[in-house]
Every structure is written in C-alpha cells, then in structure tokens.
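User: Predict the complex.
Assistant: Input components as received:
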Amino acid sequence: MRKPMLAGNWKMNKTRDEAIQFVLAVEGNLPASIDCVVCAPAIILRDIVKRAETLKVGAQNMNENESGAYTGEISPVMLKDTQVEYVILGHSERRAYYNETNEKINAKIKKALEFELKPIVCVGEVLEERETGKTYDVLKEQVVKAFDGVTIKNPADVIIAYEPVWAIGTGKTATTEVAEDACKFIRGVLADIFGKAVADELRILYGGSMKPSNVGELMSEPDIDGGLVGGASLKADSFIELCTTAA
Ligand code: PEP
C-alpha cells in the first residue's frame, strides 16, 4: 500500500516569522494517515524542523556536490545537517530558469539517495509539447534519464511528481483523466526500469493548480498518490484542508 502524500512547495515565499506561524497553526490539525510535507526556502528550514512534530520538512533544491566552490548553493551535507527529510529535484522552474538538465537532475537524485534524503522528482511537459502530441515522449525521456543508474533501496523513499508545466501557477488544473493517464504512463516507465513490484510501491504525485476543491477527485484515481502544491499550500487553513481531504 502506498501512503498518500501532500507536499507544499512554498517556492520563494515566507519569512521566518510567517513560516513559524504556519507551523504552529497546522500542528495538531494534520491527519496521521498521510505524509504532510512543506518544502520551504533553505534559510528557514532549521526553524521549521525545530517546531515541526507531525509535519515533515523538505528543501526545494540541492547541489549535486558535497562541498566546494559553488557560490550560493546548498549541499546534501548541509540539508542532512538541517535534518530535513525530503528534497524537491528537477522542478520545472529550475529546469526553465536555471537550465537544469535531465543529466544534472540524475546526479542530484543519486547524491540525495546517498545522503538518505528522499527526493521528490518533478517531470512534466510544456504546453507546446502537449499540443504537438509529444507529452509521453517527453515524460519517458525525463524519467529514464533522471533514474539512469539509480538504485532504489526503499521505494517508499522516492517520490515522482507529474507536473504539467502549463498547469503550474496558472489556475488550469489538468483534468482528472489527463493527470491519471500521465501518472499511469509514468508508473509503466518506472516498471520498465525497476520492475513492476518496485513501480507499484513508488508514490506518484500530481502537481499543477491543485487546491482543496480538486484534491479529492484527483486522488481518487488509482495512480495518483498525492499532490505537490504551490499556491494553495501557502495558507495554513488551505494546507490543512488539502491534507485532510487527501487523507
Ligand atoms: C508547484 O510549484 O509545484 C505547483 C504545482 O504550483 P501550483 O500548485 O501553484 O500550480
């Protein structure tokens, strides 16, 4: 059985005080039957970890090197030291604005797993790729290259997020059918790489304008195990509603 997950991606939002207020507001109001996660800016991770009890904490990115001359970057050693559990890798904003390639994301996944950080690996097509019928080719390439040479010891610790880029921050949620078809396809690609037993244990999240009003329907689909949520995860009451609906 795959444990559902609801992960908030705060992106470049929230001061330390705002984050602490959020944690204090959600603690005690989250369902235990799912993994409720917030992926926060690196500079406030420690403050959140310190106060989080049932809430789990993740970073939004990580450098693939352990240390060195990489000005401005955060290493897996540092994330481990901060005691975060998860790290988002390959978010479409990082692919688009910081030129992250599938090869770089592959190196990051390997390093995250080496340091026992649980990666949330994002894949997804842009609008033009969907409109020209390339969605499944793009998804396959992203998944195959991201997981090239990766060994998965515990499938529960590796999460894939299907995030159609045209749905992120646009208010345009993919229909339940489109989201399920893509997640099912991704699970098939993962089965080709790791075998069906492992693929059946890997959690696949949907991301793209998910909100309390659509989380239930999306998660009723067999291959959608949860959500990676941007905008609707920023307010404590909305996050609580997302998590309780997802549970
Ligand atoms: C995201 O940033 O991963 C995301 C899905 O954003 P939003 O929910 O705002 O579309």
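The beta strands are 5-9, 35-39, 56-59, 86-89, 118-123, 159-162, 203-207, 226-229.
Let me know if you want any component modeled separately.
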